Amino acid sequence: MTTADPRLDALQTPALILDEYRMTRNIRRLASHIASKGSSLRPHLKTVKSTDIARRLLTDGTGPATVSTLTEAEVFAEMGVKDIIYAVGITPQKLERVAAIRAKGCDLTVLLDSAEQAQAVAGFSQRSGQAIPALIELDCDGHRSGVAPGDPVLIGIGRILHEGAAELRGVLTHAGESYEVAGEDAHAWLAELERQAAVGSANMLRDAGLPCPVVSIGSTPTAHAVEDLDGVTEVRAGVYAFFDLVQAGIGVCGIDDIALSVLTTVIGHQRDKGWVITDAGWMAMSRDRGTAGQAVDQGYGAVCDEVGQPIEDLIVIKTNQEHGIIARRPGNDAPLPDLPVGSRLRILPNHACAPAAQFQAYNVLPPVPGAPLRTWPRFGGW
Ligand SMILES: Cc1ncc(COP(=O)(O)O)c(C=O)c1O
C-alpha cells in the first residue's frame, strides 16, 4: 500500500507536481554558491516557463535572465524582466520580434556564431536604426554550436557586429558535455574549460580593439562545481531549480532534491509479467531516456509513492502514448508492492524540462505541511 496525500485526491492524472520546499532549497543553493564566488547568476527560464517561478528565481523579478525561445522572452519581458539573453542562435526571420521586445523596454540580447548571422543582425540594426546587441557563442567542449576557442573567425564576426550598426556585447559558452560525466571534480574541470574558453576569447576580442563587456558561462553541473570565476561576468543554469534523475545520476544533486514529479494512477496489472500499468505514458513523461547511459538506468522514470518516497528498484520500463509500464529494475526479483487499481504514484523524470513541457500547470505542494495545493500556470510554444 502506498502512503497517501489527501491534497492530491482531487487531481485528475497524469498531473505535474512541484515540491516548493525542494525548489526553494535548490534555488538558494546555487545562488549562494555563485555569490560566494563573487559573480552573478543569470537563471535560464526555459525549464520553468512560468512567471510564478521566474519571480522566485530572479533576485528582484527584473532579471538578468536567459531564455531559449522568443515566446519566453515575450512572456518574461511582459512580466517586467528587463535584461534577457535569447541563448539559441538567431535567424534573420526572428529579428522583427527581437526588435519588438526591445521596443517595450527589455534589453534583449541575441546569440550567434557565424559571419552570416552577424551580417543579418548588423543589416537589420542598420535598417531599423536600433543597435541589436549580440553575443558570440563559443564551443568550449564540442557539444553543439559555437566558434572554437582560438579560431580567428571570432574576430571577423566581432568586427561585422562592432563596425556595422549592431552592438558586440560579448561571448557566451555552455558546457553541455558536463551532463556526460559524473562527479564534482569532473564538473569543476569542465567549468574551468568553460571559463578559459570564454575569458581567452574575450581577451582575443579586446586585443583586436573590440569591446567584450559580457563573459557568460554555465550549465547546471558546472555552475555547482565552479571554483574560479576570474574574468567571468555571469553564470547561467536552468534545470537546477527542479533537478532530475540525470542530475542525480551525475552527482549534482540527491534523489531527494528532485522537486518535480508526475502524479499517476494505477490502471491495471499484468501480474505474470511483473507489470503495473499506469496512466502516465510518454505524453506525460516524454520519451526522454537521459539516464540510459548512466551507472543507474532509471528507464523512463523512477517510481515513488504518493508522498514522493522512492520505492526501491521500481521504474517505468516502457511507455506508450497514455500507458506507463512499471516493473522492478532488472536483477531485482522482489515481489511487486501491493498497488491496486486507483493507487496513486509519483514518477521522478529523467530530464525535468521534457515532462514539464507536457503540462499546462504546476500543482504546487507548498512548503507548509498540509497547506492546500496551489496552481501555477506554465506556457509553451516558440
Ligand atoms: C545556452 C545555455 N545556457 C544555459 C543552459 C542551462 O543549463 P542547464 O540546463 O544545465 O541548467 C542551457 C541549457 O541547455 C543552454 O543551452
Explained architecture:
This protein has 382 residues and is of the alpha/beta class. The chain has 2 domains: 6-17 and 251-377, D-serine dehydratase-like domain (Lyase, Ornithine Decarboxylase, Chain A, domain 1, Beta Barrel), CATH 2.40.37.20; 20-240, Alanine racemase (TIM Barrel). The two termini are 42 Å apart. β10 and β11 form a beta hairpin. 29% of the residues lie in helices and 24% in strands. The mean pLDDT is 95. The protein is elongated, with a radius of gyration of 22 Å. It binds pyridoxal-5'-phosphate. Pyridoxal-5'-phosphate binds next to β9. The site of pyridoxal-5'-phosphate has 12 residues, from β9.
Tertiary shape: elongated
For the largest sheet, list the strands in their spatial order: 2-9-8-7-6-5-4-3
CATH topology type of the largest domain: TIM Barrel
Q: What small molecules does this complex bind?
A: pyridoxal-5'-phosphate
Provide mean pLDDT, rounded. Answer: 95
Keywords:
alpha/beta, Lyase, Ornithine Decarboxylase, Chain A, domain 1, TIM Barrel, eight-stranded parallel β-sheet
Summarize the structure.
The chain has 11 helices and 17 strands. With 382 residues, it is of the alpha/beta class.
Topology readout:
Blueprint: E1 15-19, H1 20-36, E2 41-43, H2 51-57, E3 65-67, H3 70-79, E4 83-89, H4 95-103, E5 107-112, H5 115-128, E6 133-138, H6 153-163, E7 167-173, H7 184-207, E8 214-217, H8 220-225, E9 234-237, H9 245-249, E10 260-270, E11 275-278, H10 282-285, E12 302-304, E13 310-319, E14 324-328, E15 344-348, H11 353-356, E16 361-365, E17 374-377
Parallel strand pairs: 1-16, 2-9, 3-4, 4-5, 5-6, 6-7, 7-8, 8-9
Antiparallel strand pairs: 1-10, 10-11, 10-15, 11-14, 12-13, 12-15, 13-14, 16-17
Helix pairs in contact: 5-6
The protein binds pyridoxal-5'-phosphate.
Pyridoxal-5'-phosphate (PLP) binds next to strand 9.
